[in-house]
Design brief:
four-stranded parallel β-sheet; alpha/beta; TIM Barrel; two-stranded parallel ribbon
Length: about 220
């Protein structure tokens, strides 16, 4: 895993000059899923959450913020980019279970079992702010059949993105899409898509997000 992360960071740097020759902006996208202990009274849960946060979230953010890889991975400069893209969906609440790799626990979840918490986006943005580059929210979405819940999700997360100074926001997804693990059963789209007939029907969330984009105002 570490070799893959290092190679991705070095490949981005190697491609930087080539892409810049065409007058383009070069960015790097990171996926952040903040890990929190399921029980604040469990030292094991805290330890697991800290470990997950380092491996899944802080490692790349630290390397980009410092502009170099840690010595135990060979060192070397990394982090040539003009902006940073941030993918965020939910938090991971970690609970120790000796019989499994872990489990997610929360009251608010989507069809993927993800824990919905808009404050996690604030945590993620502030983590990558250390890179000192403009931040674009490149993925943010919810899988649900409840479109009112989708509108609330967009409003809550977009509010935080604006307050934290993000330069843009891309919702996932335009259409109901195929998920590798569960097929078409997760409804992410602001446009409903029948997987058999391919008929498309805009949901209310599509008109909500469209009004925000056209007016530049977020209504409550």
């Amino acid at each position: 895993m570490w070799r893959a992360l290092v190679n991705l960071l070095r490949a981005n740097d190697s491609a930087y000059e080539v892409v810049k020759r065409e007058g383009n902006q070069v960015g790097l996208i990171v996926h952040i899923s903040p890990a929190k202990p399921a029980s604040r009274f469990s030292l094991i849960d805290w330890g697991l959450a800290m470990g997950m946060n380092y491996v899944l979230n802080r490692f790349i953010a630290n390397a980009l913020a410092k502009g170099k890889l840690p010595d135990w991975l060979g060192g070397g400069e990394v982090g040539r980019l003009d902006y940073i893209g941030l993918n965020y969906y939910a938090v991971a609440k970690v609970k120790f279970n000796p019989l499994t790799m872990g489990e997610l626990v929360a009251n608010k979840q989507n069809q993927r079992g993800w824990v919905i918490d808009p404050k996690g986006l604030r945590w993620a943005i502030r983590l990558v702010k250390r890179v000192r580059k403009p931040i674009m929210i490149t993925e943010n979405g919810i899988a649900t059949d409840d479109d009112e819940a989708r509108i609330r999700y967009i409003r809550d997360h977009l509010t935080i993105a604006i307050k934290e100074g993000a330069i843009g926001y891309l919702y996932w997804s335009l259409l109901d899409n195929y998920e590798w693990e569960i097929g078409y059963s997760a409804r992410f789209g602001i446009i409903e898509c029948d997987p058999v007939t391919l008929i498309r029907r805009p949901r209310a969330s599509a008109y909500f997000l469209g009004s925000v984009a056209s007016s530049g105002e977020l209504t409550y």
